[in-house]
Amino acid sequence: MIINEMDLSDAVVVKSGKLKSAVWNDFDRVRKGETYIAICRHCKKRLSGSSTSGTSHLRNHLIRCRRRSSSNGVLAHSLVRGKKKEERIEVHDDDNDEDDEQRKDEVLSIVNVRYEHDVVNAGLDQRRSRFDLARMIILHGYPLTIVEDVGFRVFVRNLQPLFELVAFERVESDCMEIYAKEKHKIFEDLDKLPGKISVEVDVWSGSGDDSDEFLCLTAHYIDENWEAKKRVLNFFKVDQSHSGETLAEVVMTCLMEWDIDRMLFAMASSHAPPFGEDVANKIRDRLSQNKFLNCNGQLFDVSCGVSVVNQMAQDCLQDCSETIDKIRESIRYVKSSESVQERFNESENELRIDDPTRWDTTCTMLEISLERKSAFTLMRERDDDDLDSVSDLEWERLGTVVEFLKVFVEVINAFTKSRCLLANMYFPELCDIHLRLIEWSKNPDDFVSSLAVNMRKRFDEFWDKNNLVLAIATILDPRFKMKLVEYYYTLFYDASASELIEDISECIKALYNEHSVGSLLSSSDQALDWQENHHQHHQHHHQPNGVVNRKEPDDRLVEFDRYINTTTPPGEDSKSELEKYLEEPLFPRNSDFDVLNWWKVHTPRYPILSMMARNVLAVPMSNVSSEEDAFETARRRRVSDTWCSLRPSTVQALMCAQDWIRSELESS
User: Fold this and answer.
1) Lowest-pLDDT range, 191-205, 543-557, 654-668?
2) What residues does the BED-type domain cover (predicted)?
């Protein structure tokens, strides 16, 4: 049984003349059955009191005992036994002292620890220090078992002997407590949001090939200060036996626990298994039944813009794989000997083989190789027997493919330049890709045109699903409004462009009307509150004899209001905020334009439309954040081995708390 958990109600105090050590002046020795226990008279901590345990662990405890140090001012001279500056000691885990055998197993058997006679307790806060340790582990992703590593424990002992080292269970409990406190803060932040929330769903996995899968739910929103925020809400392990319907129910449960199911505007995902499109549809249908979604859920299910660009890039590389392999072999041949490098006139820092797991490095390799095409051709003529050479036609096709890839690299860099990229930033970049695919599909080379057609099919699938929310986000950018949509749609669709533009116009009007109704309901609630307060105030000002006070000063202007209503030309005030906004000139484009600041400044002029902008601009059109590698060919984020092996509830606590703490540090 662990000493600290032992019931000592029937323990017997042992008084023996054999206890000669001065350390027993600060401990009581009691016996429970056959077990002897030493209890610190200052902090009541229980340690082994067995005669075979010696007294070193008791002296070590007194060095760290805050209550004894604070009462005595300095560490007792008797702890050090004379004036020696160094002693050989054994460092124990005092949180788990059980019996003599277990204590011997936990000995770290080390070091000369240096003591000073004038060490004082500088007010060390054990609890705060423990939680600082737990926050450090969470923030940097350290394994929880670090607290039991010999080197770490020695380091802490030497750095601060007063700090009471903790075991794995204690630090895990501290991490869970930090998670609970931080979760309460996030809950309060979400509760006071003025607008809606969009949720991003991303699939994570462990580090092994057959590892577990996790779903990460992240909230995207614009807060009351018009700042874009994203916070991880849930991180849970996916049961492989779960059907799509069961998984949809699990996600709905998470949303309801956060009390945001009625606040959702959109849900973004790459629709990678296990969170397929069928799961998203079930969630949308469930929310639509409760009338929680805008525009009948048309804008709810959105896809990842980075994923579709990544997939098109990998399609290009796959179709050119044979030629790319020849390029790799040629580079290996060049690097194989100094004589070949000299003949090739090659600098080692420029020409290098790509990393097949990152397709942007393949693009760079091909681009540099194209610049050295003549050297490769000359090498083929001299060493034809040793190489499977690249033909002129293959070089020409590679040039076109590199042109594709460079466009995709630029677009992905634009999409990942910010941690919280707003939805209005995607439309121009994706429209540029759309135009280029149309152009590439007309290439006279059948290989190139076929490649472009296949990429266009993949892009069109994404575009058909997401063009509405992309267009509306662009319209709510005062630099573009309807003009950019009209410009690109005319290029895309020719004669049918006007009909598609009208569909977008009708959708944004419907969205505005829904926000207008919500705003009126909110205003009505505020008006009822005002009337109730005004009525109570009015009753309070009645005279005792029942005579009412004279009219309020504003009441005298009732006739003036009637005059304004009768003299104002009809239609001048009948335009909606949306109509006024679209009729005003475009805001000048500049590199440092801040769309959120624009809406913050113009909220008094467009109170309803600004609420709509707040909800639309927060929609995450990509589940790739700036800090992760967006060019990986098998893009899936991974949980570290040390965390993945923990209990699912602990994994969720660590992953969520890490995101919250990092976000807080970035904000500060």
Assistant:
1) 543-557
2) 18-73
Instruction: Select from 618, 610, 596 the least CA-distant residue to 225.
Output: 596
List all residues 6 or more positions away from 17 whose beta carbon is below 8 Å from its beta carbon: none
Does residue 568 belong to any structural domain of this protein?
A: no
Count of helices and strands (H, E) across the chain: 25, 12
Q: Domain total for the chain?
A: 4
- State CA 411 to chain mean position distance: 22
pTM: 0.74
Residue 226 shares a structural domain with residue 241: yes
Q: What would you report as the CA-atom Rg of the chain, rounded to the nearest whole angstrom?
A: 35
Residue 84 sits at the vertex; the CA angle it makes with 78 and 85, to the nearest 5 degrees, is 110
pLDDT of residue 452: 95
Cα distance between residue 103 and residue 57, in whole Å:
10
Both 308 and 319 in a single domain?
Answer: yes
Q: How far, in Å, CA of 526 to CA of 511, rounded?
A: 23
Is residue 235 classed as helix, strand or coil in its secondary structure?
Answer: strand
User: 377 and 315, same structural domain?
Assistant: yes
| Same structural domain, 190 and 251 | yes
* CB distance 415 to 408 below 8 Å: no
3-state DSSP assignment of residue 218: strand
Pair 19, 57 in one domain: yes
The rounded distance, in Å, linking the Cα atoms of 68 and 497 is: 83
| Residue 74 is assigned to a structural domain of this protein | no
525 belongs to a structural domain: no
pLDDT digits (tens, 9 = 90+) for 110-125: 333 333 333 334 568 9
Highest mean pLDDT out of 77-81, 116-120, 253-257: 253-257
**Token representation of residue 162:** 């007063």
Is residue 559 one of the residues assigned to a domain? no
Cβ atoms of residues 470 and 428 within 8 Å: no
Domain that holds residue 236: 125-301+638-667
Which pair of structure tokens corresponds to residue 640? 């570290």
Q: Which amino acid is at 289?
A: Q
